[in-house]
Structures are given as structure tokens and as C-alpha cells.
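Take a specimen:
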Amino acid sequence: MATLFDAMPPDRSRRLHEIAHTVSLPRATRVFEEGRRADRFWIIRSGQVALDQRVPGRRPAIVETLGRDELLGWSWAFPPYLWHLGAETVGPVEAEEFDATVVRALCESDPVIGRAMYRYVAETVADRLHGTRTRLLDLYGPQGRPLEP
């Protein structure tokens, strides 16, 4: 899958870069919590972030690990703007951080950026959903039935 910045024309990509700022997150940093307000997102430049989901009576279950050039956080793009998962750094992480309110306003004022941004987010969500379904089939799917002749 193309990166966020590859998803739009170079002049628009520059505009988006201008509103980002670089952050360094140490190992074991809780980036966001499931159910809390989603007010920003990140493009990971180095390191890894584990996405997790709360499980009553247990530690959060890791559902996916993200790395270089991947989008961390998409809940900012859709009301009610609450995180669907939690996230924690696996090791040190460098990332570009974006203020969701500023990006949503930019998407509204510039249809080219808006279309590219929401398409990129939708493709990311679809790709992750496909990966989740594949993992679920590996865990719980039928172990293979012979095809009927």
C-alpha cells in the first residue's frame, strides 16, 4: 500500500508535511487508550507500535503491530472521534504527529487533500480488516473440508 504522502500530489503533500511535527516516543509509551477522544494521528517513521483491545478481567490483547510508514490512528477521521483500540510503543518510536482538527479542516477546505486523505484512511482500514479476518480464519476457521466433486 502507498504511504499517505504518496497518495496525493506533491504540492498537497508539502501542505500536509507543513502541519506535522516530529515526535519521539520512548519504549512502553501509552500513545492512546480505547474509548478516549481521538484528537491526533501519526505516521510512524521508525520503531513499532502495538495496537491492543481491552479484555475484561485480563490484560489488553495485542491485535496488530504497526511499523515504518504506517498510519497510527484512524478514529480521528470519523465521528464520534473516539479511539477504537489502544496503542503502546514496543520500542523507541519516531513519528510525524498531526492535529486531527487541523487536518479535518484542511480536508474540508481542499477537496484534493480531503479525497486523498479519506481514501488513504479507508484503504488502511480495509487492509487491516482483511488482515484481521485472515488471522481469525487461521485461529478459528475450518481446518479444510474436501471440495465436493
